[in-house]
Design goal:
With 133 residues, this protein is mostly helical. It has one domain (3-125). It is 85% helix and 0% strand. The chain has three helices and no strands. The protein has helices at 3-49, 53-112, 120-125.
Length: 133
Protein backbone atom coordinates (compact mmCIF):
# COMPACT_ATOMS: atom_id res chain seq x y z
CA UNK A 1 0.00 0.00 0.00
CA UNK A 2 1.43 3.40 -0.93
CA UNK A 3 1.89 6.21 1.53
CA UNK A 4 -0.75 8.19 -0.31
CA UNK A 5 -3.21 5.30 0.07
CA UNK A 6 -2.40 5.10 3.75
CA UNK A 7 -2.97 8.83 4.06
CA UNK A 8 -6.37 8.52 2.35
CA UNK A 9 -7.28 5.66 4.66
CA UNK A 10 -6.24 7.75 7.65
CA UNK A 11 -8.28 10.70 6.33
CA UNK A 12 -11.30 8.40 6.15
CA UNK A 13 -10.69 7.37 9.76
CA UNK A 14 -10.49 11.04 10.78
CA UNK A 15 -13.77 11.76 9.00
CA UNK A 16 -15.48 8.85 10.76
CA UNK A 17 -14.25 10.02 14.15
CA UNK A 18 -15.51 13.54 13.42
CA UNK A 19 -18.93 12.13 12.56
CA UNK A 20 -18.94 10.13 15.79
CA UNK A 21 -18.02 13.25 17.75
CA UNK A 22 -20.78 15.27 16.08
CA UNK A 23 -23.29 12.55 16.93
CA UNK A 24 -22.26 12.53 20.58
CA UNK A 25 -22.44 16.30 20.82
CA UNK A 26 -25.90 16.20 19.26
CA UNK A 27 -27.04 13.57 21.75
CA UNK A 28 -25.74 15.67 24.65
CA UNK A 29 -27.57 18.75 23.39
CA UNK A 30 -30.76 16.74 23.01
CA UNK A 31 -30.52 15.42 26.57
CA UNK A 32 -29.95 18.90 27.96
CA UNK A 33 -32.91 20.20 25.95
CA UNK A 34 -35.10 17.43 27.40
CA UNK A 35 -33.95 18.41 30.87
CA UNK A 36 -34.96 22.02 30.19
CA UNK A 37 -38.36 20.84 28.95
CA UNK A 38 -38.83 18.97 32.20
CA UNK A 39 -38.00 22.16 34.13
CA UNK A 40 -40.64 24.05 32.13
CA UNK A 41 -43.18 21.26 32.65
CA UNK A 42 -42.45 21.27 36.35
CA UNK A 43 -43.02 25.03 36.57
CA UNK A 44 -46.34 24.75 34.70
CA UNK A 45 -47.55 21.87 36.85
CA UNK A 46 -46.51 23.64 40.04
CA UNK A 47 -48.80 26.55 39.11
CA UNK A 48 -51.63 24.24 38.03
CA UNK A 49 -51.39 22.13 41.20
CA UNK A 50 -52.45 25.13 43.28
CA UNK A 51 -55.80 25.26 41.47
CA UNK A 52 -57.28 22.14 43.07
CA UNK A 53 -57.05 19.90 46.10
CA UNK A 54 -56.21 16.88 43.90
CA UNK A 55 -53.42 18.85 42.27
CA UNK A 56 -51.92 19.74 45.63
CA UNK A 57 -52.07 16.10 46.73
CA UNK A 58 -50.69 14.66 43.47
CA UNK A 59 -47.96 17.24 42.88
CA UNK A 60 -45.34 15.78 45.26
CA UNK A 61 -45.50 12.43 43.42
CA UNK A 62 -45.22 14.22 40.09
CA UNK A 63 -42.32 16.27 41.43
CA UNK A 64 -40.43 13.15 42.50
CA UNK A 65 -40.86 11.51 39.09
CA UNK A 66 -39.69 14.65 37.27
CA UNK A 67 -36.65 14.96 39.51
CA UNK A 68 -35.79 11.29 38.93
CA UNK A 69 -36.01 11.81 35.15
CA UNK A 70 -33.91 14.97 35.39
CA UNK A 71 -31.26 13.10 37.37
CA UNK A 72 -31.24 10.30 34.79
CA UNK A 73 -30.86 12.82 31.95
CA UNK A 74 -28.07 14.59 33.80
CA UNK A 75 -26.28 11.29 34.43
CA UNK A 76 -26.63 10.31 30.78
CA UNK A 77 -25.35 13.70 29.66
CA UNK A 78 -22.35 13.26 31.97
CA UNK A 79 -21.59 9.87 30.46
CA UNK A 80 -21.80 11.37 26.99
CA UNK A 81 -19.39 14.14 28.01
CA UNK A 82 -16.91 11.46 29.08
CA UNK A 83 -17.33 9.78 25.68
CA UNK A 84 -16.86 13.14 23.94
CA UNK A 85 -13.58 13.64 25.79
CA UNK A 86 -12.40 10.17 24.74
CA UNK A 87 -13.43 10.70 21.11
CA UNK A 88 -11.71 14.10 21.01
CA UNK A 89 -8.50 12.43 22.17
CA UNK A 90 -8.99 9.74 19.53
CA UNK A 91 -9.49 12.45 16.89
CA UNK A 92 -6.37 14.30 17.97
CA UNK A 93 -4.35 11.09 17.68
CA UNK A 94 -5.82 10.31 14.26
CA UNK A 95 -5.01 13.83 13.05
CA UNK A 96 -1.42 13.46 14.26
CA UNK A 97 -1.12 10.18 12.38
CA UNK A 98 -2.60 11.77 9.25
CA UNK A 99 -0.11 14.61 9.45
CA UNK A 100 2.70 12.08 9.76
CA UNK A 101 1.56 10.35 6.56
CA UNK A 102 1.25 13.67 4.75
CA UNK A 103 4.67 14.86 5.91
CA UNK A 104 6.24 11.57 4.89
CA UNK A 105 4.70 11.78 1.42
CA UNK A 106 5.80 15.40 1.02
CA UNK A 107 9.35 14.55 2.12
CA UNK A 108 9.50 11.64 -0.31
CA UNK A 109 8.25 13.81 -3.15
CA UNK A 110 10.80 16.52 -2.35
CA UNK A 111 13.58 13.94 -2.27
CA UNK A 112 12.53 12.72 -5.72
CA UNK A 113 12.42 16.29 -6.97
CA UNK A 114 8.78 16.12 -8.04
CA UNK A 115 6.08 18.45 -6.79
CA UNK A 116 4.22 17.03 -3.81
CA UNK A 117 0.56 16.28 -4.41
CA UNK A 118 -2.02 18.17 -2.44
CA UNK A 119 -2.24 16.75 1.07
CA UNK A 120 -5.21 14.53 1.80
CA UNK A 121 -6.02 16.62 4.86
CA UNK A 122 -5.89 19.72 2.70
CA UNK A 123 -8.41 18.15 0.31
CA UNK A 124 -10.85 17.88 3.17
CA UNK A 125 -10.41 21.51 4.17
CA UNK A 126 -10.00 22.95 0.68
CA UNK A 127 -6.52 24.27 1.37
CA UNK A 128 -3.14 23.27 0.05
CA UNK A 129 0.04 23.40 2.03
CA UNK A 130 3.13 24.84 0.40
CA UNK A 131 6.16 22.64 0.27
CA UNK A 132 9.52 24.09 1.20
CA UNK A 133 11.70 23.90 -1.91
Amino acid sequence: MTKQSLARLQQHKVDQIREKLAGLESMRAELLARREQLDETLDRERVRSKDSHIGRVAFPTFLKSVRDRQANLQRSAGEIVEQIIDVREELAQALRELQTFENSERTEQQRKGTPAPMAVGAMATGTQRRSAV
